[in-house]
Write a structure and sequence with these properties.
Aspartate Aminotransferase, domain 2; Aspartate Aminotransferase, domain 1
Length: about 475
C-alpha cells in the first residue's frame, strides 16, 4: 500500500504569519477622539451600510486597507462614552488601562471554562470574585462568576431561585411538573429594570406573573406592599430588589426587604448592576446595608466600576442552588461537583461554557488603581450629582424631580406659569437640541409618564465644570424656545 501523501498549504494562505504593526499607532486616533465632540454624530443607516461589502469577501485586503475602511466609520460614528459630557445611558467610560487589558485578553485567547484548561486565567477570575465577595461582606463560602451582562446575570439568578423554590428535582422535571398547578410569581418594584420581565418570559414564568409593587416618594420599594404581595402570591419564587435603579438611582430598603424575604423563605436577588460600584466608597457603603443578606447579586463592573464592556458578575451567598441547576457531565466534560481547586469549573455556576477572559481587565483595574482610589472617584461622581441638584434647587427656572441617592439626578426646565403640557414639550426639545449640539448627551427618560432631564454621572472624566456647562446650555436653549 503506498504511503499517504501529507497535505500542504501554499505559504500565501498561511494564517499563522505574524502581524507586524504598532498597536499604539493604530489605537492613537481612537483614543484621541474619545473625549471629542460631538458625542454622537448624526448618521443615516443606509449610508453607513453602503460603505461595507454586501457579500462576504472572497479575496482579502491588506490590513492597512481594512483599518482605513473601518476607521472611516468608527472614528466618526461611535458614541463617545468616555466624553465628560456623556450623561445618558448607564454606559461604560472605560479606564485608560482597558486597551492594554483587552489586547492581552485577545492575545491569550483563553476559554475560561474552568481551571484545567486555563489555570492562570481561572486563578485570576477566582481572585477577583473573592475581592467582590469581601466588598459585599458575604461569607467565605460564597462564590460567583463573570458573565456576559446584567440581563444574563438577572436571568441566571431567577433560574436559581426556581431551583430554590422547587428543589433539586426542578432541573429534571421542569416548571410545569414542579409547580403542581401553582403560578410562580416574581415580585419587584415598578422601578425595577426591564430585564426581569424578559427573564420571566424566557424562563416560562410569564410576564403576567411579575408582580410590581409601588414605590415611595424616593422611588424605593415599599416594604409593606411587598409583605402584602407575598401574602397574596400563590407561589412566590423570588423578590428582586434594586441597589441603584436605572431611572433615579434609588436603593430599595435592602435590610427590611431581606428580613421580609427571610421570614417568608423566598429567594432575594439584588440588582446592583449600576449601583454596585458605590460599595467601593466608604462614605456611600452604608446606603447598601442589608445587601450582604441577598441570595444573589448582579454587579456590572462595566458600569460604575469604570471598566469597558463586557464585565458583569453574579454572586451567590450560597452557591448550592446554582450548582444543582447547572452541573452537568458528558463524554467530553466529566468533572466532579465538589472536587479540588484544580478541577474547579465556572460552568457549574452559570449557563455559559465558552467564556472569554473577562476578569483580566477587572484585575488590572483593581490592582493598578486600588479600591480606595476607585472609591474616591465614585464618591466624586455622587458629589457632582448632588452639586447638580443644589444648582437646580437654587434656580427658579429649574425643577428638581428626583434628588440623587447615588449619581443620577432628574430635573426639568420649568420657568414661569407654563402648563405641564408646554413644560413637557420644551424639555423633550431641550434634550434633543442638547444632543444635536454634541457637547452633552442625556437619554430619553420619563418619570410618572412625564419627560425629565436625566443626568447619570458614572464617568471618571466628568468634573463639576461639566455640570455647570450642561446647565448653561439648558438655560440658553430654554430661553430660545420661549422666545425671550
Amino acid at each position: 500500500m503506498p504511503r499517504p501523501i501529507p497535505p500542504t498549504i501554499d505559504p500565501s494562505d498561511d494564517l499563522a504569519s505574524f502581524v507586524d504593526l504598532d498597536l499604539n499607532q493604530v489605537l492613537a486616533p481612537y483614543l484621541q477622539s474619545r473625549m471629542q465632540s460631538p458625542i454622537v454624530q448624526p448618521s443615516v443607516a443606509a449610508e453607513l451600510q453602503a460603505r461595507f461589502p454586501g457579500a462576504i469577501p472572497g479575496d482579502g485586503l491588506s490590513l492597512d486597507e481594512v483599518l482605513q475602511e473601518i476607521g472611516s466609520v468608527l472614528l466618526h460614528y461611535s458614541r463617545r462614552n468616555t466624553h465628560p459630557g456623556f450623561f445618558g445611558y448607564i454606559a461604560p467610560s472605560g479606564v485608560p488601562v482597558d486597551p492594554l487589558s483587552h489586547a492581552l485578553v485577545a492575545t491569550l485567547n483563553q476559554n475560561v471554562v474552568g481551571y484545567p484548561g486555563s489555570p492562570g486565567a481561572a486563578t485570576i477570575e477566582r481572585t477577583v470574585i473573592k475581592w467582590l465577595i469581601e466588598l459585599i461582606d458575604y461569607p467565605e463560602a460564597a462564590d460567583g462568576v463573570f458573565i456576559g451582562g446584567g440581563s444574563i446575570s438577572n436571568l441566571t439568578a431567577l433560574a436559581c431561585a426556581l431551583t430554590h423554590r422547587f428543589g433539586e428535582g426542578y432541573r429534571r422535571r421542569g416548571l410545569l411538573a414542579c409547580g403542581n398547578g401553582a403560578s410562580p410569581v416574581i415580585i419587584c418594584s415598578r422601578a425595577t429594570h426591564l430585564s426581569i420581565q424578559r427573564a420571566a418570559a424566557i424562563l416560562g414564568i410569564g410576564t403576567d406573573q411579575v408582580v410590581t409593587v409601588d414605590v415611595d416618594d424616593d422611588f424605593r420599594m415599599r416594604p409593606r406592599d411587598l409583605v402584602q404581595a407575598l401574602e397574596q402570591a400563590d407561589c412566590p419564587v423570588c423578590v428582586v430588589a434594586s441597589a441603584g435603579t436605572t431611572t433615579t438611582g434609588a436603593i430599595d430598603p435592602l435590610a427590611d426587604i431581606a428580613e421580609i424575604c427571610g421570614d417568608a423563605g423566598v429567594w432575594l436577588h439584588i440588582d446592583a448592576a449600576y449601583g454596585g460600584g458605590g460599595l467601593m466608597s466608604e462614605e456611600l457603603k452604608p446606603l447598601y446595608a442589608g445587601i450582604e443578606r441577598a441570595d444573589s447579586i448582579t454587579m456590572d463592573l462595566h458600569k460604575w466600576f469604570y471598566n469597558a464592556v463586557e464585565s458583569s458578575v453574579i454572586l451567590y451567598r450560597d452557591p448550592t442552588c446554582a450548582r444543582q441547576l447547572f452541573y452537568e457531565r458528558s463524554d467530553y466534560i466529566h468533572f466532579p461537583l465538589d472536587g479540588p481547586d484544580e478541577q474547579y469549573m465556572f460552568f457549574h455556576l452559570s449557563p455559559e461554557l465558552s467564556r472569554r477572559f473577562r476578569a483580566l481587565p477587572a484585575y488590572i483595574t483593581f490592582r493598578h488603581y486600588g479600591r480606595e482610589r476607585l472609591g474616591r472617584n465614585v464618591l466624586y461622581n455622587a458629589q457632582c450629582a448632588q452639586y447638580l441638584a443644589e444648582l437646580v434647587e437654587a434656580d427658579p427656572d429649574l425643577e428638581l424631580v428626583a434628588a440623587p441617592q447615588l449619581s443620577i439626578c432628574n430635573f426639568r426646565y420649568a420657568p414661569g406659569e407654563l402648563t405641564e403640557t408646554r413644560v413637557d414639550a420644551i424639555n423633550s426639545e431641550i434634550r434633543d437640541r442638547i444632543e444635536a449640539k454634541g457637547n452633552f448627551l442625556m437619554s430619553v427618560t420619563h418619570i410618572d409618564a412625564r419627560p425629565v432631564l436625566r443626568v447619570c454621572i458614572i464617568n471618571h472624566a466628568t468634573r463639576a465644570c461639566h455640570i455647570e456647562g450642561l446647565l448653561a446650555e439648558i438655560k440658553q436653549i430654554g430661553t430660545e424656545l420661549l422666545g425671550n
